[in-house]
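Re: your question about Polyphosphate kinase

S., sorry for the slow reply, the queue was backed up all week. Below is exactly what I fed in.
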Amino acid sequence: MRWIAPFLICCLPFSATAHPHVFIDTGLEFIVDESGQLTHVRVTWAYDEFYSLLVLEDMNLDQDADGVLTETEEQILSGFDAQWVEGYNGDLVVFADGVPVALSGPMEADATAENGRIVTSHIRAVDGGGVPAAALTAKAYDETFYTAYEVTRPVKVSGPESCKIDRIDPDIDAELAQMRAFLLTLDANYDLEENDIPLVGESFATEIIVTCPST
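Result:
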């Protein structure tokens, strides 16, 4: 997906617009209890090499540049991306039978490095204790597309072994064609401060579908 950014830039009639600056490989773990209730979601983010380098340099970590963090460095890094402003949804939406699931802020945040890439994880609790996991859908995306999420890391269910996971990947070619058609309607005088930039992040998001048997 990282070739989307240069596509957007080269096709725009102006220099500033929303396009990915950070690329994250994402993994999800849906934690379901014995009664068939989704109680938590564990989220894993693996940042791209360039952004990881910037963060590590800014925090004065991995000074030997071997791409491996010490235990102390991991403790310092853990939670750097878990300081969320009020109202931030964590770039994750979950629905249960079509109804939005309210999730807590990040808990149990940790971090490490894999081949020079920062990999973090956190857990989010379902408000109210849980919701039925019979029909869940989830998408990880930043609607502004400043951050591009791609679900390339494991997606799993911890709980009933009979739960099934499916995914619907976006039609990238079709979405890019639609975006390009829109961009070509704009001119160099298009005022980004007075006009909203199209929120295209969801268009490039993979939909995860989890179905668990009713208990």
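Residues 22 and 147 are 5 Å apart (CA to CA). The longest strand covers residues 22-32.

Happy to talk it through on Thursday.
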